[in-house]
Amino acid sequence: MNLPKPLAGRVALVTGAGGGIGRAIAEELGAAGAAVAVVVRPEAGAGATVNAIRTAGGRAVQFSADLYDLGSVPPLIHGIERELGEVDVLVNNAATVMPLGPVTGVRQEAVLRALTINVDSVMTLSGAVIPAMGRRGWGRITTISGVFGNLASIPGGNVYATCVAALETYASVPPPNRKRDRVDPC
Known about the structure:
This protein is of the alpha/beta class. It has helices at 20-31, 47-55, 73-83, 108-136, 158-172, 178-181, and strands spanning 11-15, 35-40, 59-64, 89-92, 139-143, 183-185. It has six helices and six strands; from the N terminus they run βαβαβαβαβααβ.
């Protein structure tokens, strides 16, 4: 059976796509016809994700980026555009739940790392792809966050809960040009 490919001709970028939820999302986007930029940390591999998409007849390329280093975003986007084209679908899936534990002992650099990976990278990646989405008049941005971040009663999850609250607020405020450019957060 030859099913329609609703994302044929589109490019999807999925962070944290080496396994788990990110891999499943990347595979579904590939099955829907998108060329998939499978983004993982430099020390992580995404071969299984890329191979699964290719085996199913899709197109996928692995890219490495350290989302704690926001300076890695422009070269990542340029590499994706060079290999696959401009990004139409962004899935912000990469995250860290660390540091866990009481706030009385948390180190400032650990908090800044969590905020950078979980919040700043989402805003930076979104800002990097929205202009091209706007020029083409179509784009989708989805941000994944853990449900336990909403539960203040989880012992030691204060930093991650703060990140999730920031992401939820960010996602709930539409960009001013959303209707004009047809770039929608999902």
